[in-house]
Write a structure and sequence with these properties.
Layout (H helix, E strand, L loop, with lengths): L1 H32 L14 E6 L2 E6 L5 E3 L2 H9 L6 E2 L16 E2 L7 H7 L3 E5 L6 H7 L2 E4 L7 H11 L3 H22 L8 E6 L4 E4 L4 H8 L12 H8 L4 E4 L11 E5 L5 H15 L2 H4 L2 H4 L3 E3 L9 H16 L3
Parallel strand pairs: 3-4, 3-6, 4-5, 6-7, 8-11, 11-12
Antiparallel strand pairs: 1-2, 8-9, 9-10
Helix pairs in contact: 5-6, 6-12
Length: 334
Amino acid sequence: MNDIYIKIKSLTRWLRFGIAIFCSLLLAVACHRGGSLPIRDYTTNAACRQVEHTAGIACIPEKFERVVTLDGVSLENAIALGIKPVGSVISDFSSYWQEYLTGVKNIGVDEPNLESILALKPDLILGLDYRQDIYNITSKIAPTALFKFENSGQWKEIFTNYSLALGKREVGETVMKNYYRRLEEFKQKMGNDLSKIKVSVVRIYPNNINIYLLDSFCGKVLQDAGLSRPESQNIKESQAIKLFGNSVQVSIGNELIEQADGDVIFIWTGQNTSQGNETAKKNLEQLQSNPIWKNLKAVKKNKVYLVPSYWIGSGILAANAIVDDLFKYLINTP
């Protein structure tokens, strides 16, 4: 009789423990979103690969069909690897890949909506490491892998990490080979002019004017293309951090507009929201009326090119789009 009592008592203790864990999970989600979310604790018998990532270890299924991406970088890398997510955070930056987004549910602009993710019943969730604040929740919905991201200049390493984690190494290598093949074609067509052109990159924010440095996303693409940068922008990551506290860009005031000059200037105004875009465009108009700007070499030679915000990155689709612009403006434009 005592043995039965002990077994029942032990079973009751484990049952209470399980209920406590479940309630804690629901409470965490409610606090996160201001309401309740019926979490589905996934189980799988399918074969999977243990993948170490910034938030832990994920058991990524060998075959996955319903992928959700938590940010634009993960979305872009998934698409480049031939994976079409069922849902993703989709901001104005992602609109340039509209041809790939048909049927992809928007789960948020900046912040992913957990209810929307749950409703999509994903079998894999991908994101960057700054999404660790929701990892304990998403990892209960589906295997979740979060990838380290320090700055946009690391885009190739990040793409490689995605391709390896998703079992798409050969696809990733083929994609990168095509990128380098296009760059070789560009260099050949540029000929001797390649070493003569210094390319300036300028981003217009709503309240700032920034120049992009050597090891930024677009800076790395320009390096791959064999193009030089103005002295003010030819600053490596380590030095940039010491000088500016930022490895990829630095703000310049009206008194330093000369630092934006080059043989050609690529400039963009893209922001994450429509309102931000409109404000940035007004700031560009003010810059264009500035006498110092009008006196820049590239401006006087009509070598200033307004480009889309994919110049900010941060993946192979954006890199190839920049290569398209290099062909368009440096080879095909008189």
